[in-house]
Amino acid sequence: MSKQFAVIGNPIEHSRSPELHHAFAEKTGIDLHYSKRLAPLDGFEASVNDFFTQNGVGMNVTVPFKEQAFALCGQLTERAKIAKAVNTLWMENGVLHGDNTDGQGLVDAIKALDWNIKNSQILIIGAGGATRGVIYPLVKAGARKIVIANRTLARAEQLIADLKDAVPEAELSAIGLDALNGQFDIVINATSASLSGDTLTLPENLNFNYAYEMAYGKPSSFLDQAKARGVPTSEGFGMLVGQAIEAFAIWNGVRPNLKDFL
Ligand code: ATR
Description:
Elements: E1 3-9, H1 17-28, E2 32-38, H2 44-53, E3 58-61, H3 66-72, E4 75-76, H4 78-83, E5 88-92, E6 95-99, H5 102-112, E7 121-125, H6 129-140, E8 145-150, H7 153-163, E9 171-176, E10 182-189, E11 206-213, H8 221-228, E12 233-234, H9 237-252
Parallel strand pairs: 1-2, 1-3, 4-6, 7-8, 7-10, 8-9, 10-11, 11-12
Antiparallel strand pairs: 3-5, 5-6
Helix pairs in contact: 1-9, 5-6, 5-9
The site of 2'-monophosphoadenosine-5'-diphosphate has 15 residues, from helix 6.
């Protein structure tokens, strides 16, 4: 029987993880089946237990269960501990293991675009879970200075207070979205504005060389403004592929090449 994998979330119908993992499997010659599992909002733990009891090998976790998955694990990677969220689960010696591959997925997507991260100054807009998950991998990839801009300044300040000890080699700072200005190498939109159809207005005196939108498949006022300035841009499909490759490599011990799937 082929190795069983799944992505669990609510809703789950939109997930592209099965098609990605089946494409990786085909490329690497691994026999697996990857399905979607809709868990009731109050039934995440039962659904995970059910999957692993039935010899499931690995599970990806998506909205709204990443924090619950974090709480459920007996063993966590360093980056999952820092993210306080888990998107990749597997069982080892009867212990549920958790990792968070989202941040490395973003780093790998940016590298595949040939945008330089080493010694860079990065602006991240937004201070929610998406931002929390990417700071440590960006710093490990060489980002030297990261500014977090958020509509609610206090939330950005809190995030920095939480994370600064984990990344002592980088300079982290917070700014209110209304006070935003300056010069950056890369600006990353980690807000949920595009997902909810909201407009995000970038100030005139904000300058940047590259723009990355974490969302994908949605109109993005952020990307529209970056394109109007003639700046190279990307939406978040590469990050999705990157996090999936990272999970695939953990589970199967083989790493597909990101550029083959963009
Ligand atoms: P996620 O886990 O995806 O990061 P989240 O924790 O709900 O989601 O965080 C959403 C982020 O998008 C927050 O930084 C939020 O700003 P606030 O902290 O001020 O709420 C930001 N956000 C959402 N809609 C926005 C908008 N229209 N303009 C600016 N920021 C927005």
